[in-house]
Amino acid sequence: MSESYKLDLTRRPRRMRRTASLRALACETEVLPQHLIQPVFVIDGECAPEPIGSMPGVSRLSIPDLIEECRELQALGISGVALFPKLEDRLKSDDGREALNPDTLVLRAIRAIKTAVPELTVITDLALDPYTVHGHDGLWDAGAQDLANDATVEVLAEMAVLAAEAGVDMVAPSDMMDGRVGAIRSALDGNGFEKTAIMAYSAKFASAFYGPFRDAVGSASSAGTHHLDKRTYQLNPANRREALVEVALDEEEGADVLMVKPAGPYLDIIREVREETELPLAAYQVSGEYAQIMAAAERGWLDLERCRDESLLAIRRAGADMILTYFAKAYAEKLHS
Ligand code: PBG
Description:
11 helices, binds ligand PBG, TIM Barrel, 15% strand
């Protein structure tokens, strides 16, 4: 502790951390509302919002409430919403045929948002999980042991055209079938929708962090199984080279935006994809990443705002241009307060 003890240092990195304004000048990464996309759950009818137990602060909304929410998100500077329908059980079937009903819930929601809040980017998932009784993202093959790749892609391409007709800005295939991005691109182009963009869930891992989402859309409970095994189509969490192969294929097939999902536990993948491609890159901070921060904060174990902000900053620092996050609205509200 003596005053006379002096290191002979030329470089003292702490000099640039001394004051708030020096730290601001040296700051390398920022998270703005414009970088964020709010995932939203939509339900049919004129009912009250339905809170989702495993996602405190998130509710399923009727279309009128969703419109109100979209107005608020737009006013806060959030760039987009990603829509997820929660269907009544009676509309679910083995082949998910409700997905191709031209008046299905999600298509009505797209039309309503694009009419009321046209500047807000609307993204819709392409996958069959909200529509199937088993909760899988596609159609069973003959033996009902695995998903039928090409038959599923045919349905996804039709869903894409319906969503484009409804006015969606981007379709987001989240199914992980082979060849779907190319098939969706040609279906869109063939029907005059060359302006509709594709945000490809390119490196989507078979993650346990999707649990709360499956409560939200009822894709777990309807099958009676809480841990749906999607490992024949989603990526093995152990594999990074395989993720890069998927990303390269989606780029070749015409994706406009690539995505890594989940985000926080896969920051290494985000960084690698960022270095492999020049396309815009999205990362999805999924339901389980949200739930773990919320749960720990509720117990007083973590500071909600600081952990939320740090989690988003880390995803941007890893190289994501845009983030799908259930924190989008709360984050923007804090910036404006
Ligand atoms: C469905 C889909 C899932 C998510 C987005 N789209 C779940 C799944 O693959 O089972 C998860 C999102 C989240 O956990 O927040 N294709």
